[in-house]
Structures are given as C-alpha cells and as structure tokens.
C-alpha cells in the first residue's frame, strides 16, 4: 500500500471510544437504520470501528464512501478542462434517496485542508460549484435536519503536518489524535456521561437566549463593528437536538456552540475574521468584509482572496448570513491553543458567522415552515454554508431588544 | 493503517501498464465519459493509476467505491439478524442511473474468495440474495451491454495466500501479480498491440462457429455427457465487442473464451465441474448436476453444497443455463497451471457454462430484441450469472447441426 501508516501513533482504546460516541451519542443510530458513511481513505481504522459499533447498534447496512487525496489531485494533474464542471450526481442523488428512505449519515472529517492550495483557483472554484449543485438535494436533508447525522474526525497525517509543522510526523499525528480525543470528550472515564453533562450545559445557554428574544446582536472588537439582526421567530440551539425523524443526536463532535439564524436582510457594518478559514483545500486568512442591508458589498483577504470571491459569487445567498454562533473564548478547544485549520474544531473555539444556507431548525416550529415562510422571516438560502470565525478575547457582544435596550451577552469573549 | 502492505512485491511498471490497458483496451474510455470504479480496499495503488489514465483519456468524473473485507466480516460478527435481508439499494440505483447517463464501469476483482467460508451459509445466502435483487437494475445495463465495461484484477494478499498457500506472503503476492500481468498481456513489449492480435484470433474462432450455426453442442468426458442446445438465432462472441453505446471494448481482462447463449429449455444430461468455483466467499467443489428439459433437477458438490443449493433456489432461471463458452486447454492461463479460485481467470482456463442470466448481445441483432423475444428464442433470465468450469484435456465436444450431423469442435480440450 502507498498509504502512510501512522496508526501506531493513535491510541486504539480512545479511537474505539470515539467510534462508540459517534454511533451512540453523535448519531443515536436506531435499530434497522441504514448508515451512509464518508471518510478520507486514511481513516480506514476508524471506519472499521464505527462499522462494528453500527452493526452492534442494529444497523441494516453500513456503506462507506472514501475520498482519496491522491485521486483528487490526479484530476488536477491530468483532467481535461471540461472535467471541472462535472460532479458525480448519481452518487449524491443516491445518498439523497438513502436519506429519504431513513438512512442516517456520518461524515469523518480530516482531509488535508491545504490539498488544493497550489491548484488553479478557477478550476477549484468550478469543481466546487459543480459539486455543490449536484450535492444540493442530499445536503438539504442534512440542513433541514430530516435525519440524524454526525461529523466526527480522524487525525489524517497530512492534516496533522499542517497543524504541527515543526514536529516529526508520528508525533504530530499523536498530538492531533490526542487533541481530537480531548475535544470529543473520549478521554473521560465515561464519555457517554460526559456528553450528557455537556449537552445540559449548552441547553442552559440556549434556553436563556431564547427567553431574551433579542432582535439583534452587536459585535465590537478590533476591526469589527457589526450588527447582526436575528430572523423573526429565530430559535437558539446547542448540543443534542432532535431531527425530524424523531432521533435526538449530536450532529457535531466536538461542539461548543449555541447558534441561531440571522436575518438575511438585516446585517450592517464590518467584521474581521479572527482565525484562518480552510475552504475545500484553500486557506483564506484575514477576511475583512462590509455588510449593507444584509449583503456583503466589500470583501478582502490577505490570502485566498480569489477563492473567497468565487465563493461569494456562488449565488445571491452566498453573500448573506445563514448562521450566527456564540462560543466562549475559554472553551476547551480554544483553551488548547491549537489552530486546527478545520471548521469543525475552529468554529467551536470561537464565535462565528456562516455565509449561505440557514438551518430551518433554528426557527420556532421550524419543521413545519415552508421555504417561503422561512424566507419571509429572514432565513437565507444558498448552495453553500461556510462558517468563519469572528470571536476572540477582545470581542464584546450585546443583545439588542426590540425596544432598543441593550443586554451584555459576552465581555472579552466570555459569557457576561 | 491496518492494511497489509505488500505493494513492494508488485512490479510498478507492469501495474501501470495494466491500468493503461484497462482504460484504453478494456474500456476504450471516451472523452467526457464518467467512470464508476469498484475495487477491494487493498487495490488502492491500481485505483490511483487507473484514475490517472482515465483523466488522461478525458474522463469527466472518476468515482471509486471500495469494498473492505474487514467491514464485510464486521456485519457477520456484530450484525443483527434482520440486517442480512438488506442491501444498499440507494447505491446500486445510483450506479444504474450513472450508466443510463452514459457512464462506463470498471470493476477491479481480487477479493479473498474464501472470506465468508466460515460464516453461517444461511446468512451468506440471504445477504447474497438481497444484494442480487438490489443490484439487478444496475446489472442489467451490464448484461444488456448498454455501456462499455471491464473487469481486471489486483493481487490482493488474501487471494494470493489462497492461490500459493505454501509461499511466504510477499512471494505469493509477487507470483500472483506476475500471473495476472502475463494473463493480461501487460508483460509484452507493446500490450496494446498484443491485445489487437489476440482479439483478431478470437474473432476468427467466433466467425467459424457463427458460420456453422450448430443447433447444439455435445460434451463428453469423465462424469460428463451433456447436450447443450443453443438458442435460436444465437451469436458467438469473443474478445473485443461493441456495446450499445457504440464503444468497442474488452469487457474481461484477461479473456480467452468464445461464448454464446444456450437454449434455456434444451439442455439434457449430466456434467461434472473440472475446477472449484469460488462464489462470493465460499468454495464450491466437485459439482455434479443433471439437467432435464434445460432445468437442473439434481445437484451435488463435495464442498459448498448448501451454498450451491441456495444459489439454485435464487429464482427459476438460476437452475438453467445463460452461457456456454469454449476455451482451449492450452490457453495461457490454463498452461500456467495455476488454480486462481477466481472466475475471471479460471473460466478463461477452461470451457465453461453459466447458471442464470444470458447476454442479449449473444443473439443475432440482440440489441433490438425485447425481453419477450429473447425468452421466446431460448434466452434465460435470472438475478444471477455464475460461470463454472467443465472443460479439461479429457473433454471432447461435437457440434450438432439441425439435420443431426456432427462436426468435431474440440478433441481432448483443443480446437479440432
Ligand atoms: Zn456553527
Ligand atoms: Zn455552521
Ligand atoms: Zn464466460
Ligand atoms: Zn459468464
């Protein structure tokens, strides 16, 4: 095999705990459910453990689709120009059908965030757009929370190398593995109980925010003076949540955020990113954007600006917000001091906003709202959903009520 | 990684030639075609080379679906009983859709033929049946030759161990790799030219048989006295062949056979297998069956008889023939003396018959015949198509013409 083998650097007991948490907490996989699993090729050891736990939990079928960095690159090396406007729609349509028939969905994250950094950004943009269009029907089942789903992660060596560039590769894999295990709470004596406790804490925060019913949040900090109007009838969520199929699951492992839907037309001011954003193989750093009437009218970045602008041009909704999320600066992931170059981790180390598609579950009675109703209440729609980090220990947040009164929400990055 | 790494035992130049032959001869992949690739997980090195050649040839997208022996076994170890009646229909339906939209299909063979030998044969049978039913729409595009398709193979260590049980594993992988390369003609100076020559030779044999228009073939040998009536308007094929999408491809690499469609109602007598048959993880050896009116009315095997009987009970067509094929005993694969426990190789070392589905292309003007017409002419239909070997250097074959006259076709396993 030409796959790098650093699995000896990964604690096998904790890896098995991660697999168990992914199935029992992340998915709450039900007896008789099919499972659609996607993973980087190097994540084979975790896939095998997850598959075993899935069958123990009564899975009907477990079907894994692997992505291989080498074959992704082969397309850029050898593919004809027309190839970059194509995507395997047949596969995504099949996945959409699986979800319609009740399958759960688990994604193992851990791809090399810099894989495509050296490739032609026009081709990267075209390939991403073709993929987004083809994937939309499947993604909608996820973003509408029709089914129980989860993302967890595996310490891919190419990712570990980026996070710990100065360490020998085995040591980097070991450190990234340990950081993933700690953030995923599988280093605790009883990870299942630890997750129950954590979910209760996040519930407390979202319950308070739902009681306040703020009309907007006002962010101030270095390079940031941003007012994010919240959607009419928005609802805050965090931690475990119940999908439309009735299954209560933890879609993200790890998760530290409480989040809701901004009003797509009511965002004003300017904001600066506080951590780099890794988007499908390209790093976008020091983003600075200005909003008018909810729309990004100016966008800069010190790195990856061309890809950022391609992203913003995906569709009209790509220039508007679909999510705003609060994470204290002292959260364990932030406290680790590690920059993961991976949204699943970095968004849980920092307050963030997301360009693009909103979550219908972040509305009161969201499950029964039509697409038109969601739009009328300020919910954004787009082919994309891209989180980027705007929190730090220098950011203050006020909640602004309908009558204009202000309530401190966060001070210097901590709950006020 | 927990994958065994014996790729150092595999000649990288010949492996790349195999990838090139698979794309340029096996598939004749067309510019703009999507490619659906399936492979055992250990075949990653060959998948990467094939993907590169596919993109060089102008592939739109190359999508690989891997099968992992470990996760297949995990289901038998941990799966609940109901799981064994389920299959990932969403994936197979997606594949069928890909073929309808013009995708080509390449399968890398090389799974451990004994993988499921120790598992509960009732569960193996149920899982196979569920899979066959779910896979039928996709398989029909292959068996109807709607698209260009190919099977080639990779020296999986678990397969190599079975073929060369007395050798150290690296040595077994090396020997199996070399046997695959020789049989696939990629050990020649110019493999593409070697395939053109081989295709011309097979064409000469099928042209002669089509000129003779035999009504039946009569096989005699140890434990065998079998008359195989041929379907009305049958046509012999061998080597390169043109799919309904207009692409001339070599569906099997290697291939040594010329083959046609028997009459599903006109097979009489008894026949003994001359090589073991490996069927989805179980070895079936010393098969002895008796036909009456085209139907198997008695079936025995010294090993795997329970699985054989499950196979025969799949549906009515599973007890009738869908293919008869002629291969000289002196063919290179047979001459190698290696028993591959893999149909792709062993069927090309020996005359064989297949239970189940017939190929519509093995009829004169087959592409324009309806399913009803094919049935009326004697074509069999079934969820399965399983080749098994009945040729040896002790078998004689006569062609029987409509007027009852006999023409020698093979004597002691060689063309007469
Ligand atoms: Zn978020
Ligand atoms: Zn988000
Ligand atoms: Zn055959
Ligand atoms: Zn066959």
TrEMBL record, chains A, B:
<dbReference type="GO" id="GO:0006508">
    <property type="term" value="P:proteolysis"/>
</dbReference>
<dbReference type="InterPro" id="IPR035097">
    <property type="entry name" value="M29_N-terminal"/>
</dbReference>
<keyword id="KW-0031">Aminopeptidase</keyword>
<keyword id="KW-0479">Metal-binding</keyword>
<protein>
    <submittedName>
        <fullName>Aminopeptidase</fullName>
    </submittedName>
</protein>
<dbReference type="Pfam" id="PF02073">
    <property type="entry name" value="Peptidase_M29"/>
</dbReference>
<dbReference type="GO" id="GO:0004177">
    <property type="term" value="F:aminopeptidase activity"/>
</dbReference>
<dbReference type="GO" id="GO:0046872">
    <property type="term" value="F:metal ion binding"/>
</dbReference>
<dbReference type="InterPro" id="IPR000787">
    <property type="entry name" value="Peptidase_M29"/>
</dbReference>
<comment type="similarity">
    <text>Belongs to the peptidase M29 family.</text>
</comment>
<keyword id="KW-0482">Metalloprotease</keyword>
<dbReference type="InterPro" id="IPR052170">
    <property type="entry name" value="M29_Exopeptidase"/>
</dbReference>
<dbReference type="GO" id="GO:0008237">
    <property type="term" value="F:metallopeptidase activity"/>
</dbReference>
<keyword id="KW-0378">Hydrolase</keyword>
<keyword id="KW-0645">Protease</keyword>
